[in-house]
Amino acid sequence: MTPFERRFLIGFAVLILLGGVVFFHWLQGCPAWSFNEPSARYNLKSLATAQEDFFEQDRNENGIKDYWRADVAGLYTEKYRGETLRLIEYSCAVADDRPVVPAGPRASKSGYWFRAIRFPNEDKPDPARFAFCAFPEKNPEIGRYTFIISEQKVVYRKDLGKARGIEVWPDDPEKAGWTKVD
User: Which helix (H) or strand (E) holds 18?
Assistant: First the structure.
């Protein structure tokens, strides 16, 4: 190896090391929500995918194509042909804010809780629709936004301050101040 090549390699190694140090310090300064919010959106999309499977495969075996409306955890805990469904990750099932049947010890997932929500003027859940919200355990330390998704598979977000999620899907999310994120 020539002296030039050796100096080049040493210089390159030092540059890589310094870049790693700068990146590590930048990473330490990033707020938690910059990592938690994408996870919450991803998990809502996973819930929507699980709902599609539940609908298409008639996972409650009632002979009707319908969505699971009771809670989030049921997409994991319900039985199908004698076996536990497990259409969603266990970590998402235990992050259900209001499980009918808990999947295990409750814990937020990436700092977010999940909840099945109803639609306006529903006396009983409409089996042709579903909606979920994901909200931060602590705002703004964990996340700034609450996210919602329905059978339309569009994710919306809104900063609700200290509020812990919503109970009812907004009639018109955009008019109610929700922003499309996907």
Answer: helix 3-29
pLDDT of residue 139: 86
In sequence order, which residues have a C-beta less than 8 Å from that of residue 120 and are 6 or more positions away? 168, 169, 171
Q: Give 116's strand partners.
A: 132
CB 164 within 8 A of CB 135: yes
* CATH number given to 33-180: 3.30.540
**pLDDT given at position 134:** 97
The stretches in the chain having pLDDT less than 50 are 18, 20-33
What's residue 18's pLDDT? 46
β-bridge partners, 80:
83
Number of CB atoms found within 10 A of residue 31's CB: 13
Query: Can you give the residue ranges of every domain in the chain?
Result: 33-180
